Amino acid sequence: MVRIQASSIDKLGGDIVEWVGRRRAEGMAIDAILEELNSLPALQEAEIRISRSALGRHLKSIAEVGERMRRATAITESLARMGNRADNKMLRGTIDLINSSLLDVLLAEEEGEDGTFRPIELTPAKVKALAQTVESLARAEKIDLEREAKIRAEAKLEAIAEGRKKLDAAGRSGDLDPEALARAKRIMGYD
To answer: How far is CA 105 from the centre of its chain?
Structure first.
């Protein structure tokens, strides 16, 4: 289960969190990061000492966020390969990411005042907001499908007009005799 809880490192502020993230991204080992972290003047002045387990939990949560981002990217890229229009790909990717986020919210836990973890409470207002989000997604998907159908219908009409124009041009130029032209138009459904 996902836990939504600020770690002791998160409570130190954005600069420290960013500093830890950069060190980890550079490939620095946990013990080396811990040694540097605990030797920072700001922590020493405040007499704060970070434990190895707290740093490990924090780095694990960063890795989980990174994994979620990689998963979201993979989903979006997969949907993009399935679609055939850039705006369509973005809409489908966005819909899937929101659905994934909703699932994460439903599976998340929060820390209570007594220190225990429990599922996030879904109040009527939260349920209404989720329902409205799902409804908006369904409406957006329907609009997208209707737009795609309209584009396909317009493309078909353009192709038919272009075909008719080419047949007429072939008849005028003498490339097709009148009998062949009439037969081609009948076969293509232009007459």
So the answer is: 15
The most distant pair of C-alpha atoms in the chain lies apart, rounded to whole Å, by 98
| Angle (CA) 133 135 139, round 5° | 115
Q: Please state whether the predicted TM-score (pTM) of the whole model is above 0.90.
A: no
With beta carbons less than 8 A apart as the criterion, state whether 30 and 55 touch.
yes
Residue at 119: amino acid letter: P
Name residues whose C-beta falls within 8 Å of residue 88's C-beta, 6 or more positions apart in sequence. Answer: 144, 148
Closest CA to 87 of 171, 170, 143: 143
CB 119 within 8 A of CB 13: no
What's the rounded Cα separation, in Å, for the pair 18 and 32? 16
CA 17 to chain centre: 25
Type of residue numbered 125: A
* Helices within 39-123 (DSSP H only): 41-45, 52-82, 86-107
Please write the tens of the pLDDT for every residue from 90-144.
566 666 666 676 666 666 666 666 666 666 666 777 777 777 777 777 787 788 8
